[in-house]
TrEMBL record:
<protein>
    <submittedName>
        <fullName>Transposase</fullName>
    </submittedName>
</protein>
<dbReference type="InterPro" id="IPR002686">
    <property type="entry name" value="Transposase_17"/>
</dbReference>
<dbReference type="GO" id="GO:0003677">
    <property type="term" value="F:DNA binding"/>
</dbReference>
<dbReference type="Pfam" id="PF01797">
    <property type="entry name" value="Y1_Tnp"/>
</dbReference>
<feature type="domain" description="Transposase IS200-like">
    <location>
        <begin position="15"/>
        <end position="136"/>
    </location>
</feature>
<dbReference type="GO" id="GO:0006313">
    <property type="term" value="P:DNA transposition"/>
</dbReference>
<dbReference type="InterPro" id="IPR036515">
    <property type="entry name" value="Transposase_17_sf"/>
</dbReference>
<dbReference type="GO" id="GO:0004803">
    <property type="term" value="F:transposase activity"/>
</dbReference>
């Protein structure tokens, strides 16, 4: 894999340039990541999951009750599977480090709410792409 200055990622047989904004919240919106140590632990966990799943984290913010990630990953991976890998893996690894938090705040065994938000973004706006496609037809 190589990445050029324009953000294009070159793989064998294809080139891509897309990014995803992924956000999810803690169960019951409990504020968990309230100390630098807890934020660092979750950041490290998310970086590990990214490496294991061939995902590039371009930006990350771990807030007390939610996480924001700006991601890029190969087109062969489904966005829903990437979201599940981050949420499921991070909950398991975090609760291994902190069984007391699981017992005290998350008695049901779930660190994260079942839902998440994901959107795509790129270097070009939708209008730019629409105009480009429309301009391709020569009458």
């Amino acid at each position: 894999m190589s990445k050029n200055a324009g953000g294009m990622i070159h793989e064998r047989g294809y080139v891509y340039n897309f990014h995803f904004h992924l956000v999810w919240v803690t169960k019951y919106r409990h504020e968990v990541f309230t100390t630098p140590k807890l934020v660092t632990e979750m950041t490290d966990i998310l970086m590990k999951i990214a490496r294991l799943n061939e995902v590039a984290i371009e930006q990350m913010e771990v807030m007390p009750d939610h996480v924001h990630l700006l991601l890029s990953f190969k087109p062969k991976y489904a966005p829903t599977n990437v979201a599940k890998a981050f949420k499921g893996g991070s909950a398991r690894l975090f609760f291994e480090l902190h069984p007391e938090i699981k017992a005290h705040q998350f008695w049901g065994g779930h660190l994260w709410s079942p839902s998440y938000f994901m959107s795509t973004l790129g270097d070009m706006s939708r209008k730019t792409v629409e105009n480009y496609i429309a301009s391709q037809r020569k009458v």
